[in-house]
Fold this sequence. Notes:
- The chain has helices at residues 19-31, 49-57, 76-89, 105-108, 116-131, 171-180, 194-208, 230-247, 249-254, 259-268, 275-281, 287-293, 299-311, 325-331; strands at 10-13, 36-39, 63-66, 69-70, 94-99, 136-139, 144-148, 164-166, 183-184, 219-226, 295-297, 316-322.
- Strands 1, 2, 3, 4, 5, 8, 9, 10, 11 and 12 form a ten-stranded parallel beta sheet that branches.
- It is globular.
- Helix content is 44%, strand content 16%.
- The longest helix is centred in the last third of the chain and has 18 residues, at 230-247.
- It has two domains: 10-226 and 298-331, TIM Barrel (Alpha-Beta Barrel); 229-295, no CATH class.
- It is built from 14 helices and twelve strands.
Amino acid sequence: MPQNDIPRVGMYLQDAHPIRDGMAYAQYAEERGFEAVWQAESRLVRDAIVPMAAFAAVTQRIKIGSGVINNWTRNIGLLAATFLTLDDLAPDRIICGIGAWWDPLAKNVGIDRRKPLTAMRETVEVMRKLLALERVTYHGEFHYVNNIELDVVHGRREPRHVPIMIGATGPQMMEMTGEIADGAVLNYCVPPEYNDEAMELLDKGARKAGRTVYDLDRPQLVVCSVHEDQAEAIRGAKMLLTQYLAQQPHIAKASGVTKDVVEKIQAILGWPATKEQIEKAMIYVPDELVLKITATGTPAEARAKVKEYIKRGATCPILYPLGDVRLMIDTFATK
């Protein structure tokens, strides 16, 4: 029987499965009581919007979130129109998770992420107005629009409820998220105590807007490797962590990984990394680190770890399944 001591739970999908498999997982997660399924968009692999539409088309109740898109590569008019379109497909089930992206990838595609706080603030402000079906003139540093509105030819001519959740990493972005967003998508590959500072920063920002951190939703990505054999679960998590520590240094920093470990891994991994390179580099990732920054182990161990993140402020764990996806869904099923 499902346990109800973790009442809210979501699933996180990246690019590890064919999209049609992801559609089936979304259906199964909905059947087992999951609240949401979130689609990643990080490397130049798979965009978030197409899978989100696919998941929305084959489900009835589960929420569909972007986890997370960036605020640099889509014009603000297109960004708002995209989420209006998704909301047409799945009314009141769409969540816009958005983040400031990361280097070196942004630089490698020609984007200079200057003034990321200003850019994000402008994006959220203009997008909210457009999704409210307002006519907008906005002359900012990053968004400059004149007398535009979303042109609803077919569909509901009414303001759309699309929560905007910022995937904040740095302290300034976290504080601003508390001020301007509907919530924060808290980072993964971090220990539960990472949330302590995040909660303080979110609350500091929230109070600028006359609210507190508890008025914000705080879903959190959590890498989840479940297997009846703990050693196999750890191995599965290491395959992922090895790549992330090398390719996304901000996550390595947030998880407390030493520079020495990161440099050893980076010296082995290419771009994109091959399976052989990952196998060679993963010996530098200690088991203790895996258990510290992911929910890895037997079903009981994984549930216990997820509850630690909830105790430190996460409102809805968004579980990134490694290995047997259905076993992970069954482990956290609420019905």
